[in-house]
Input
Amino acid sequence: MRSYILALGFLLITYFVKGQAIIEGISYDESKVPDYVLPELLTCEDGTKVTTVAQWEQKRRPEVMEYFASQEYGRTPQDKIAVTYETLTENRMAMEGKATSKQVKFTFTNGKNVVEAILLMYIPNNRKGKAPVFVGYNFKGNHSTTLDTTVFYSPSFYFVKSPDHPDWKRGNQMNRWCYDKIINRGYAVVTMCYHDIYPDKVEGLMEHSVSSLFPSYDPNSTAPDRWGAIGAWAWGSSRIVDYLETQDWVDLNKIAIMGHSRQGKAALWAGAQDPRFKVVISNDSGCGGAALSKRVYGENIARIIKLFPHWFCPAFQQYADNEAKLPFDQHQLVALIAPRHVYVASADGDWWADPKGEFLSVYHAGPVYKLYGLSGFKTDVQPDIHKPIMMDVGYHVREGEHDVKDYDWERFMDFCDIHFNKSE
Ligand code: GCU
Output
């Protein structure tokens, strides 16, 4: 028995360092972070130094956008896709009368193929005028975010996973959606299952994805800049904003996007492309999100494209085990969102997502914020746990694992309170 316990202990120590599984090729050793040089934010390809907002917006910013479109997420097609909205339910007495809940079905079509998605909304009743809104995808269906039995299964359920699957039960992810706290603070929150927009499967289920609706659609395309799932999710969040623009209860100057993990990656890319997102929040987004790729700490490019090749464009593959060659890095993605506000959150136990690398991206985006006369971080020293920084950009690291906790939401709302009240 004793030797059995010793063997088990040895095994656990071998496979886990502080709770992180040891995976070949993955480093959690700060001393092994290479001496990297981050690509210059404010120097154009032709060597011109950027000293004005006009130069940034007209010359350098388009160059930086082009890196992400041509080499990481792929190019977002610009064709307009027809959509209709059908209100399925509206309940003015939701959450014991505190909120109005609403479910609206989006039907996207190109005349041949149809993709359906359901947006679930909670809107505070006790408000003066229009409401600020958080837009965010959920992972396991709208019904997983609440015990409310009137909330429908998301359309993607029936082909991605059966709603009876134990992981996908009603209310299973409600710990990530503190609707009560959000409504109490006067915010509306709208959510959709990300699979409705692009089912997250390596093998594609392409006919169910919005990609299939575009004229350029070719499921076998290997074009280097062919957009991937992250691009499609970002596109979908902009379509949610299109719908919000039809609603008189929405304060269009106060729309925030919040994404966790893979959706934190998509939220940053959505924020870079769509100026209607006034605050962009990335929670534990890690590799391909807020974390600097060139640190090669935790999840790296080789690993992410091995498991999730469909998230990125084919050109990204050239940087597997070759981060030093990247002509851009993720701090530039944050900078693309300026002068709008970005908030990045990490969890200290989430080494996979490289909390320090997530913080440094925001720090290194600072020069672009400064160009606009706004405040970036003063120091590149990561703050302690539960010591959020709230400038024109923000950051916190929370205790615990990879997840979305009430603590995270509370800080997101603090940050939005600061910036949304300013714009009144
Ligand atoms: C995996 C993946 C991460 C991603 C995460 C998630 O862990 O490697 O890149 O952020 O899933 O989306 O939960």
Summary: Residues 68 and 74 are 7 Å apart (CA to CA). The pocket of alpha-D-glucopyranuronic acid is lined by residues 261-262, 286-287, 299, 304, 352 (CB under 6 Å).
